Structures are given as structure tokens and as C-alpha cells.
Amino acid sequence: MARTVMWFRRDLRLADNPALLAAAGRLGTREPGAPGDQREVLALYVLDPHLLSRAGAPRRAYLHESLRALAEAIEDAGGRLAVVTGDPVVEVPRVANRVGAEEVHVAADFAPYGAARDDAVEQALTAQDRRLVRTGSPYAVAPGRVRKGDGEPYRVFTPFRAAWLDHGWRAPVPAPDGVRWLEKPRGAGGAADGEGTRALAARPDVDVPEAGEGAARALWEEFLDDGLDRYQQDRDRPDLAGTSRLSIALRWGEIHPRTLLADLTRLGQDGRRSSGMHDGVASFRSELAWREFFADALWHTPTSARTSLHAVVPEDAWVDGVDEDAALEAWAAGRTGYPFVDAGMRQLAAAGWMHGRVRMVTASFLVKDLHVRWQRGARHFMRHLLDGDLASNQHNWQWVAGTGLDAAPYFRIFNPVTQGTKFDPHGDYVRRWVPELRDVPGAVVHEPWRLRETPAGYPERMLDHAVERKVALDAYGRR
Ligand SMILES: Cc1cc2nc3c(=O)[nH]c(=O)nc-3n(C[C@H](O)[C@H](O)[C@H](O)COP(=O)(O)OP(=O)(O)OC[C@H]3O[C@@H](n4cnc5c(N)ncnc54)[C@H](O)[C@@H]3O)c2cc1C
Q: Which Gene3D superfamilies does this UniProt record tie to the protein (predicted)?
């Protein structure tokens, strides 16, 4: 029987995984147990030092948990996950050679590093007379597929979303019953709980949530039962559990957006559902469309990961050197003296996640109140977010900074106090994350400078928003 390697990367799941079905020779096989063109499959994960060095302790710790869950699922099905550490261009052909696999199967990676790495791995495999087979991607519609009538990419979200909805996506594929997993061969590397992966778990720094596809599915089902019908109304409220929190599972591919979209379509077509549920379906689908829009944008313009798509202010408007470092340090530590901003940054540090509304406000504060370039903030987010994803992160930063595709205009500047009083109306979110303010009742917690005494340990405002807003607008006027 022919042998293949299933190289897991950003698809740490067994269900609805077309690349895995292709590896097992089951893609397109109608009967789940039918012999078809069956192969023996080796499950492989490569710990790539280049990617790990950029990930930060929280993301590495989450990867450890997720790999453990994947390994357990594969063991339950009779196989073993081989985990090797090293450059994939060397390691993948080495493992394929050792097990005598003709093909290595992956879900295509569209981000700049991943796409270049895969091309290099493909060349190395071809030199050994083996093939790299790409099936599916982390998206419902692969980046580059949705285009305007003239073949150009969309630069504005709303028409992209309309074309993306028109394009549609495939139905989820069945779970791979009866895959013939190969035992991990000698010399193929440690198991998922081996030394390489254990090193990932060192110094987790954050409370890592439960990882793996089972946990992702449970989170989604809980949200369908008890969140989607209020999503439209509550999703901007960081004081409530108003969003799905699936960004982490989507980032690691523990669940695929196609699985979510199929459930949304079913719910949307059910005429007995409440109007809240129908609004929730449309609004959640639209958020998934943003994820796909930004992936598409990064694929068309890989330099957008580092470079602004538009210049909004002259270069001399940004702070540099020690001023920049001091601004970044206070912001990252959640010690700006603006409670809504500080709560967000402390949530990020403690939980490796931040509510989306607060991501916008904290990012805006760094760029427009502290006059720090968006790239510095994006780098900090990428080190700390468990859902850190190059396309979503860099393009959302560019959106807030006004430098990206279909971005918020530069002159629309978030006011950290009014954002707080509007979206955290009772101050519960601030009190949860900023212990120095726990005894300040009600919405005044968003403006501690109005209290007779500043609560002990909480910093004075490091700047006056009204003044810095004007500085930002003046710089914009000079561009
Ligand atoms: C400055 C900044 C940085 C961000 N960095 C990231 C990042 O690194 N990784 C990441 O996944 N998201 C990022 N986002 C987008 C968004 O904030 C998160 O996806 C969302 O808050 C995650 O929470 P949730 O899963 O509960 O979202 P829900 O409201 O439940 O949304 C469902 C899903 O839709 C997608 N989504 C929602 N909003 C956006 C958006 N604005 N852009 C792209 N996709 C979206 C996510 O996959 C999310 O899981 C960033 C936003 C900002 C403003």
C-alpha cells in the first residue's frame, strides 16, 4: 500500500480536513469505509525555529496544548503524531524519505513566509521524486480567488464580501473514518509530549485556554446555543461574553471557517428562528468575511505585512528613540492612565487575548495619541495574542492607523473615555482587569482624574487626549 505524509501546520484537526482526506486517498470517496485508493498516512508536525522565535511564550504554550490534543486524537484512531524540530525544507523530505512516502499532503499556506517555505519544500521533494500536494486552505475561499470583473483584487470590503458570498464555498468534508495511520518511524522525531514540545510549554505567562478541535467545537456549540442570537447586539461589549472567542481556534485551524459557515447557512435558512438569530448569522458571517478579505489583501500585497499601503502623516510626525520606547512601555504595561486602554493591555498580557473593540481603541491610542508607528504595536500584539495572525493583525492595525485597505479615515480618532463609557457602560470590564480601580463604582471608573483622589497605585494620565488628538490632526493636515 502506498504511503503518504500528512504535514499538519495551521490545521490542527481531523474533522473537515480535505488535505487529510487526500493524504488518506479518501477525497471524493463516497462511502466512508470504501477501500478506494487507500494509503498509509504518517502524521507529522514540524516545529520550525524561525516561526517559534517570533511567536512569544503564550502562543508557544498554546501550540503545545493543541499538539497534545491532536496527538491524542490520532492515538485514539490508532496512529502517532511525529513531531520534529528543524527547518521544514530539510525535515519534511527527510521524514518522507524515511517512511518511503511518495506524497506529502498539506493545506496551502498563503502567508508570505509559509508560501515561500512550501515552494522550497516542494523543490526539495521533487529532487527526491516525491510530490507536495496542496488541498484546501485555512479559508472558506482561498486568497486570490475572489476578483473583480476585470480580474483585479478588491480593495473595498463591502463589494469583496458580496462577491465572496456569491462565490460560495464547498460543504464540509466528512470525518476521516478508518484512516490507516502509520506508526511513528524510528528517527522521525519525538512524540507530541516529547522534549521539543515540552520546551514550548515553558513560561506560559498566560492562562492558556483549553486547546484542540474538541474544545473548539464545544465553544462553537455553546455560542450557537447561547450567543449568536445576541451577537449583533452584544459583540461590541467587552464587559459581556458577547463574542465567540473562536479566533484562537481559527488561527490554529482547530476548526475551519467552512464548518462554521455551513452551520450559519442552516440556521439562516430556518424560518422559525428569531430575528436576533438572523441578524447574528449575517453579522458573524460578515466578520468571517473580514478575515478572508485581509488574507486576500496580504496575499496580493505581501509587503503590507510591514509597510503602510498609504502614507497618512509626514515621517517626522512619529516619535522615535527613547520617547518611542517609553511610550510603548507604558502602553504595553497598561499604565497610560486611561482605564479602558489599560484594561485592554492588561487583558492581553494576562489572557493572551483582547476583545475586538478594545483592540481598536488600544491600537488607536498608540498610533494617534502616542504617535508611535503601527508596526511597533502590531509586533507587540503578535508576540502576545494567542490568535496572532499576520493577515488579520497587520491589516487591522493598518485599518486603525488609516494606512490600509478600506481603512478608517485617519482623522476619525477613538476617544478612550467615550469608547469606554459607551461599550463598558458600568465599568465592569475596567474593574475586572485593573485591580487598582476595583473599588471605584460605576462609569466614573473611566475617568479616575475626576475622583477626589487618584486610587492608590494607578498612574496619572500620561497625556491629554484632546491635545494629542489635535497634534495628530495637524500632522494629517501637513501630509
Ligand atoms: C489592532 C487589531 C489587531 C487584531 N489582530 C488579530 C489577530 O492577530 N488575529 C485575529 O484573528 N484577529 C485579529 N483582530 C480582529 C478581531 O479583533 C478578532 O478576530 C476578534 O476580536 C476575536 O474575537 P472573537 O473570536 O470572539 O470574535 P467574533 O466577534 O466572535 O468574530 C468571529 C470571527 O470573525 C473573525 N473576525 C472578527 N473581527 C475581525 C476583524 N476585524 N478582522 C479579521 N477577522 C475578524 C475572527 O476570525 C473571529 O474569530 C485584530 C483586530 C484589531 C483591531
A: 1.25.40.80, DNA Cyclobutane Dipyrimidine Photolyase, subunit A, domain 3, HUPs
